[in-house]
Amino acid sequence: MRLAPVLLPALLIATSSHAAPRETRIPEAAIATATQLRAQALADDTGWKIVESLTTEVGPRLAGSEADARAVEWAKAKFKQLGYDKVWTQPVTFPKWERRSEHGAVLGAHAQPLALTALGGSPGGTVEGEVVRFADLASLQAAPDGSLAGKIAFVDYTMPRARDGGGYGMGSRIRGDGPSAAIRKGAVAYLMRSAGTDSHRVPHTGNTHFDAGLKPVPAAALAIPDAEQLARLIALGSTRVRVALDCGWNGEYTSQNVIGEIRGRTKPDEVVVIGGHLDSWDLGTGAIDDAAGVGITMAAGHLIGQLKQAPARTIRVIAYANEERGLYGGKVYAESQAKQIGKHQIIAESDFGAGRIYAFDTSPAEHAKAAAKQIADVLAPLGIEYTPGKGGPGSDAGPSAERGVAWGSLAQDGSDYFDLHHNADDTLDKIDPKALAQNVAAYAVFAYLAANADGDFGSAPKEPAPPKN
Amino acid sequence: MRLAPVLLPALLIATSSHAAPRETRIPEAAIATATQLRAQALADDTGWKIVESLTTEVGPRLAGSEADARAVEWAKAKFKQLGYDKVWTQPVTFPKWERRSEHGAVLGAHAQPLALTALGGSPGGTVEGEVVRFADLASLQAAPDGSLAGKIAFVDYTMPRARDGGGYGMGSRIRGDGPSAAIRKGAVAYLMRSAGTDSHRVPHTGNTHFDAGLKPVPAAALAIPDAEQLARLIALGSTRVRVALDCGWNGEYTSQNVIGEIRGRTKPDEVVVIGGHLDSWDLGTGAIDDAAGVGITMAAGHLIGQLKQAPARTIRVIAYANEERGLYGGKVYAESQAKQIGKHQIIAESDFGAGRIYAFDTSPAEHAKAAAKQIADVLAPLGIEYTPGKGGPGSDAGPSAERGVAWGSLAQDGSDYFDLHHNADDTLDKIDPKALAQNVAAYAVFAYLAANADGDFGSAPKEPAPPKN
To answer: Which of the four pLDDT bands, split at 50, 70 and 90, describes residue A16?
Structure first.
């Protein structure tokens, strides 16, 4: 179907000076195979077994830790065991941050411990001071310069629960930007209510950063019950707290992106890229973040590899190194492929837990919309809605998408994700094997159909955006 | 109504050689006042405020800790503030057990931390050894003597969820008897899956003991996800673990039962006793265990004290010392009242959380059954069923009941109790203020009606049972 010019969206008009590409379509035979693959994946427990294996045998795997190296060896072995045609690695180098111990306590007449955890990137140190509570980041930013001299800033923002994780935008800004804002006001330490939606004594860690020119101070997140307790104590009167963190930077480390490929039959040098990240925070065993993504995509590739006939293009599954401390693996991959953008059919990452997928989208390319709709039609029986214009590339897929790789988005139900995200409760028992299998089915369908399309999804080189903080 | 002899239950026949006491009845005026009290209590937040105050201002209050003394001062001040006529204390002396630090870790190829907590009474020590898993206590007890030499015993029993907490019987036996069983088989340390029903990284502590003649070994409970992880690792092959506990006995401590009284109008020397325990384990803030019991009974007494006319008998509310390490406060109280058994109208303790009360019972005394039924009729609109023969005295009420004090039982819905019991998650946010108010209403009705009865509930001195282990 061709759209009349009057209906063309702005984006297409903007690019209409280029030669109009041929419309991409997916052959009926591929649709039929994908439909079988879908049923097979729903009845298969390979994804679950991969998640169980990684979280049990390796456990927590903070980038740069001893377990990071074990995770890399695990991934290489697992790809081979799953029958991938080619397994290779890419070195990923980054500064290593370590957590050794952490303690918090209310001092004085109401003395009691506080459950807290250092934010990734925080320096160590033991600090005591009066706590000043702010309801949100803007209130802290609005405090007069120097007003927190010798004091501890505490941002007590309550992150709302949402299927799409929408509350995390503010939650992660409070984690990322809060410490620098506190330092500018004179604070000697920074505390935040965890960016989470649970009610357990399991504080949520996650990355922070310090603006150039500022002297970093200890920065930590309180478990949600502890944040509420601290707020109650502050309401009673002046409250002093001790924050004692032993953590910090310790040299450089080189980990690996671990990559497995199911070789394409007719266009082996063109790739559909799916994956998850291999590293995790150290507090839990990284089950939903992101053993699930690794398991979902490894299993999807494996099931495609088990078909009688390989897909036209290569399926490349990446277990990315060090996503958590700043998309290191995703950036290295994107850079390594800078001259291969056009060889990338599409890229997608699973990095939002193990909840059921409820929505599908791809990057906007008018000539690929019919093909996207064909994929959506095979996804629909899985309870997945086609929602053009509502998706975006996953975390490690971002750097590739910025360079022009077309992306796919399979949005997971994240209603419970921030109960577990970056905390000690991120363990295998939180994953529903049936929901995981639905994810595997969706990724298998998506990757297989994209790999067999006649035509592309719009990948084309572009200048990457300037790096963010 | 008199029962025909053929219908008399066995118990009554057994006691029928004694002079038959006059049937106890509650005057209609008292019923009317209790009905008003019930409505007033449901709309009152005194109970909630007491729980908030204790858990916030004192926080965790392990018997013998610095916070124990603060809790005693808090309770004295709170009784006075709530208008109690008399506030007094009873010294309670016990050996002090301290927790300083605790760590667990899997060693070797699958190295990772394990969330565990020392059992109360455990010695300190750092032990490494291969773990041997037992599905239940009987399996451990059936292991050949010496078969665990140099090894760590692990009892991996899954406690079922139940409204009446029925699964805790086995859970607490595994905690209490497991360590000695393990030592007899040669084990160098003892691990158990927490006696809990949650799925969080918050291990459940609780009291253990070591049989005479055995050399104690470090004994700890794993968080439930960690117990499952350890079981998976053991299924993969030989698994060595390090258990490092810094804890143990440290002299004696004298705490206090703190007692508040609403003086009776016509029989001030006769008492209705209600209460909860003031101490808590150290991991949470002791909200459901047992700030709730303290708050419920303090508030009930307070509301009775606010009536225009005091009840006939005295309402005595006890905040017991050191329930957790062995009913020390309850035993001291019972002993102190050994010659006052007949002055005790009835005793009840609230120590099963803050869930709604669903059942009422009293100790069997045929002449008081009609009065019990009268109380039950006023409780019924609160959703409370009269269940004769199904209740029992609460923890600290036990030693008094053993000496012959009649008891009342207001059974709370404990479906969620063992999600929080003795772990770090026992915090204020877990309490539903409306359910708490229902508890206050029930205790107020019960205490007020029992205090105004014409006649008794069967209290009479008897020899206490020999002490249990």
So the answer is: very low
Q: Which amino acid is at B118?
A: A
ipTM score of complex: 0.94
Dist CA B103 CA B109 (whole Å):
19
A-chain CB neighbours of B224 within 8 Å are: 429
Give the chain A residue whose CA is nearest to the CA of B423.
A201
Measured distance CA(B408)–CA(B349) in Å, rounded: 8
The rounded Cα B415 to chain-centroid distance in angstroms is 15
Strand partners, B272: B315, B346
CA B417-B418-B421 angle, to 5 degrees, is 85
DSSP assignment of A404-431, as one string? T--BEEEEE--TTHHHHTTSTT-SGGG-
Q: For the beta carbon of residue A153, count every other beta carbon within 10 angstroms.
A: 28
Q: pLDDT value at position A441?
A: 98
Q: Could you tell me whether strands B112-114 and B86-106 are parallel, antiparallel, or unpaired per DSSP bridges?
A: antiparallel
Q: Name the residue facing B202 among A55, A200, A229 (closest C-beta).
A: A200
- Where does the pLDDT of residue B21 fall: very low under 50, low under 70, confident under 90, or very high at 90 and above? confident
Name the 3-class secondary structure at A144: coil
Q: To the nearest 10°, the Cα dihedral for B131, B134, B140, B145? A: -40
| Block residue for tokens 């009705």 | B445
Structure tokens at B17: 């050689």
Distance from the B283 Cα atom to the nearest Cα atom in chain A, whole angstroms? 9
Amino acid at the residue A145: D
Q: Is B186 exposed, middle or buried (0-12, 13-18, 19+ CB in 10 A)?
A: middle
pLDDT confidence band for A205 (50 / 70 / 90) = very high
Q: Once rounded to an integer, what is the mean pLDDT over residues B180-194?
A: 98
| Angstrom distance (rounded) from CA B11 to CA A462 | 90
The pLDDT score that the predictor gives to residue A18 is: 53
pLDDT digits (tens, 9 = 90+) for B376-409: 999 999 999 999 999 999 899 999 999 999 999 9
3-class DSSP state of B16: coil
Full strand arrangement of the beta sheet holding A385-386: A385-386, A357-362, A408-412
The dihedral sign for the CA sequence B433, B436, B440, B441: positive
Please indicate, yes or no, whether the overall pTM of this predicted structure exceeds 0.80: yes
Strand, coil or helix: what is A339? coil
The residues that bridge with A314 in the sheet, in sequence order, are A271
The SS3 assignment for B392 reads coil
Strand partners, A259: A88, A318
Tokens 């997971």 correspond to A412
Tokens for A356, please give them: 């059921």
| Among A290, A282, A360, CA closest to A319 | A290
Fill in the amino acid letter for A60.
Answer: P
Nearest to A225 among B109, B224, B427 (CB): B427
Q: What whole-number distance in Å separates Cα of residue A329 and Cα of residue A319?
A: 9
The angle subtended at Cα B142 by Cα B136 and Cα B145, nearest 5°, is 125
Residue B414, SS3 per DSSP: coil
Q: How, if at all, do strands A408-412 and A357-362 pair?
A: antiparallel
**Token pair recorded at residue B419:** 């999600």
For B57, the closest of A67, A110, A202 (CB atoms) is: A110
Q: Which residue of A has its CA nearest to B200?
A: A425
> Mind listing the pLDDT tens digit for each residue in B308-342?
999 999 999 999 999 999 999 999 999 999 999 99
- Write the CB contacts of A61 (distance below 8 Å, at least 6 apart in sequence): A67, A68, A70, A71, A278, A279, A280, A282, A286
B61: closest chain A residue by CA: A112
